Amino acid sequence: MDVKIIGIGCSRCIELEKRVIDTLAELNIAANVEHVTELKKFAALGIFMTPGLVIDGKVVSQGKIPSKDEIKKLLAGGK
Fold it and tell me: pTM of the prediction?
């Protein structure tokens, strides 16, 4: 699984990264987690509001910090 946290490194972006990593650990899911901070890449990924969350190339959240329960659903493919 490939997970990207999109944001310049503000406290909201760091909180999202922490929640994602914690949730992956709770679910025992192996993933490559990358924090993208380059503004030029945001638009290329389809992110226009930060923080953003991209899972396996698909934008699943932007402009908010999802709860751990929401992140669990997003990691399961929205199910």
Answer: 0.92
